Amino acid sequence: MPTLRVIDRDGVERELNAPSGVSLMEPLRDMDDGVGAICGGMCSCATCHVYVDPEWVDRLPAPMSDEGDMLGDLRSRRDNSRLSCQIMLDESLGGLKVQIAPEE
């Protein structure tokens, strides 16, 4: 069960334990004031947008084209933006640090 470091929209960092084999979106959706995840992980709404800590960006698989397309429409997009529904958790991601992006 990887432990995640999550910075919420108020700038508060907390640790979350998340099961392996689920998308990052799932534990973030379950947080108070977490991600919206309106489409339920179908990569069609961008309401699970997060900023990945720079130390972790290169350790994640590259985004697929549909994820890039969804992120391209966001005003708050950064170089380290990802959709949390597209990041599958496993033990190798223990310590992953992300910040929940502003709602748009």
Structure description:
- By secondary structure, this protein is of the alpha+beta class.
- It has a single domain, classed as Roll (Ubiquitin-like (UB roll)).
- The chain is built from 3 helices and 5 strands.
- The chain has helices at 25-30, 54-57, 65-72; strands at residues 3-7, 13-17, 49-52, 81-83, 97-100.
- Strands 2-1-5-3-4 form a 5-stranded mixed sheet.
- The model has no long low-confidence stretch (mean pLDDT 94).
How are the SSEs placed, and which strands pair?
Layout: E1 3-7, E2 13-17, H1 25-30, E3 49-52, H2 54-57, H3 65-72, E4 81-83, E5 97-100
Parallel strand pairs: 1-5
Antiparallel strand pairs: 1-2, 3-4, 3-5
Brief account:
The protein has 104 residues and is an alpha+beta fold.
Describe the sheet with the most strands: 5 strands, mixed
Helicity level: 10-25%
SSE run: EEHEHHEE
Number of helices: 3
Tell me the Rg in angstroms: 12 Å
* CATH structural architecture: Roll
Structural class: alpha+beta
Per DSSP E runs of 2 or more residues, the count of β-strands stands at: 5
CATH superfamily: Beta-grasp domain
Q: What is the highest CATH level, the class?
A: Alpha Beta
Q: What fraction strand?
A: 15-25%
List low-confidence stretches. Answer: none
Give the overall shape.
globular
Largest beta sheet: strand ordering: 2-1-5-3-4
Oligomeric form of this entry? single chain
Overall mean confidence score, pLDDT: 94
| CATH topology grouping | Ubiquitin-like (UB roll)
- Distance, first to last CA: 31 Å
